[in-house]
Amino acid sequence: MGRASYEALREHAPHAKPFVLSRAGVPGIQRYAQTWSGDNYTSWETLRWNLPMGLGLGLSGVPNTGHDIGGFFGPAPDPELFVRWVQVGVFFPRFAIHSWNTDGTVNEPWMHPEVLPLIREAIKFRYRLKPHLAALMREAHETGHPIMRPLVYHYADDPRCRGESFDFMVGADLLIAPVLEPGMTSLSGVSPHRPAWLDVGGLFTRTRRLKAGRRSLWQRRWIASRSSSGPELPSPLWMAILSSIASTTAFRGRTLRSTTHVRTDAQPSA
Known about the structure:
The protein is of the alpha+beta class. It has helices spanning 2-12, 44-59, 79-89, 116-143, 159-162, and strands at 66-69, 73-74, 94-97, 100-101, 148-150, 168-170, 174-177, 186-190, 197-199, 209-210, 215-219, 222-226, 232-236, 240-244, 251-252, 255-256. Helices cover 26% and strands 21% of the residues. Strands 5-6-7-14-9-10 form a 6-stranded antiparallel β-sheet. The chain has a two-stranded parallel sheet with strand order 1-3. A two-stranded parallel sheet has the order 2-4.
């Protein structure tokens, strides 16, 4: 089905780049279509376990995948869960907010006005990430390397990385440590053995290097937003995003001018 759709699009518009999206497929679908994990349930558990699912697909030769952001089926996500899902979802090859909630609502970026600045900032970051993702798409096509990679993919000699299923790499140089539990105010993660890592996620009051090979504690900053229908809601600012600076060629102030290194310098406010 994927191949037939691809070939039909090429025949219909030979000078355009075809795009096929298919949930169903067998090994080989990656040659013709993007896919996703299907009707996931809205919960923190799903947010967590979608990550190794996607990493496994990438290791199995299907790199262009994603998950329904916010969950497809079940209750509407609360503001904190929705923010966390969007924040990690912007790093998936496929990023789509897609739902059929049991209460008749649909997930939309503006569904929780009190955290809209955070959603907006994450989506803006996704747009800044597009050149990096495009380069990784080409790399996956030419070499078979997955786009999202478990830490062990690059650091097999580091025993701390062998059992890590939730922190992940986007390409070879961008390490993502998502927040996967409610109410978190700090985050512990592994910085694999490498000359140095650079925080590029806006977590700190100023940019700093992290020593490689240690388990670092990344302190969170929080924005207090007041909901019109409930008590004060602590809303997370961002997650840990680390970039290797071993091969950074042009660091200039607050931007990394490279197709393989990105950062966000705008900080959302409530």
